[in-house]
C-alpha cells in the first residue's frame, strides 16, 4: 500500500507539472529504487494459513543477496530462539535473505508439534508469501531439526524450490537408531546441504553415510567436529559455539555460491 500510494502521488506530480516522457522515465526509476530500498529492510509479517495466522520475520542479507532462505525452527524452538538468531546472523552475512517463521502450534503457545500435514501447510503458506513479497529469483527451504525434516518431505513430494538446507537433520530419535527417517530421501531431486554435528544424538554418522548411498540428489554433507544437536561443543574441544556457527555460515556460503 505504501508503494502504491507513493507511485500514484509521484505519477500525478510528474504528469501534471512536467508532462514529458523523460520525466515519466525518472518517475519509474525512483519507484524502482524505492521498492528495492523497502525490500532491504527487516520486516515482520502476518501470514494466513487456512483460517489461521502465523508470524514471520524477514531479515535481509548484510552483503550482496544471492538467495532467499525460508528457515523453519526445530520441534522445541521458535522463530526467534537462540539458535535461530545465531543462524540468521551468520547466514545474512553470507548473502542469504532469511525468512523465519513459527509453525502454528508454536504461534498458538503450544510446545506439542502439529501433525506433518499441518506443518507442511504452514511451511507452504510462508514460502508462498515470501515469493510474493520478495520476488526471489532463487529460493531454498529448510531449517533446524524437525523444521528441516518437514522441508525435506516437501522436497521429496516435488515442492518447487531451488535447494534444500538442512541443519541438524534428525535422522533418528535419540537412542533409537533403528527408527530411521530416510524413506523419502531418495525421492529428493534438488541440491542439498546437510550440516550435522559428530556428537548429534539424533544423527549417527555411520547411519547417515549409509543412507546417502541410495540418494541421487547432489547432496553435500558437512560434519561439525565435536558438535551436538544444538551445535554446541565441549570446552575440551578448544572451540567455542561462536566458532562452530561461523563454520556453519561459511559452509552455507560456499554451497550457496555454487550453481
Topology:
Elements: H1 2-18, H2 21-39, E1 43-49, E2 52-59, E3 67-72, H3 82-92, E4 96-101, H4 104-107, H5 116-134, E5 139-144, H6 146-156, E6 164-167, E7 192-197, H7 205-211, E8 219-224, H8 241-256
Parallel strand pairs: 3-4, 3-5, 5-6, 6-7, 7-8
Antiparallel strand pairs: 1-2, 2-4
Structure keywords:
alpha/beta; Rossmann fold; single chain; disordered N terminus; 2 domains; 40% helix; 19% strand; 8-stranded mixed β-sheet; 8 helices; 259 residues
Care to describe what's here?
Helix 1 (2-18) packs antiparallel against helix 2 (21-39), helix 3 packs across helix 8 and helix 5 (116-134) packs across helix 6 (146-156). Helix 3 (82-92) links the parallel strand 3 (67-72) and strand 4 (96-101). It is built from 8 helices and 8 strands; from the N terminus they run H-H-E-E-E-H-E-H-H-E-H-E-E-H-E-H. It is α/β, with parallel strands linked by helices. The protein has 2 domains: 1-39, no CATH class; 41-256, Alpha/Beta hydrolase fold, catalytic domain (Rossmann fold, 3-Layer(aba) Sandwich), CATH 3.40.50. Helices cover 40% and strands 19% of the residues. It has helices at residues 2-18, 21-39, 82-92, 104-107, 116-134, 146-156, 205-211, 241-256, and strands spanning 43-49, 52-59, 67-72, 96-101, 139-144, 164-167, 192-197, 219-224. Mean pLDDT is 87; it is low at 1-38. The radius of gyration is 21 Å and the shape is globular. It has an 8-stranded mixed sheet, sandwiched between helices.
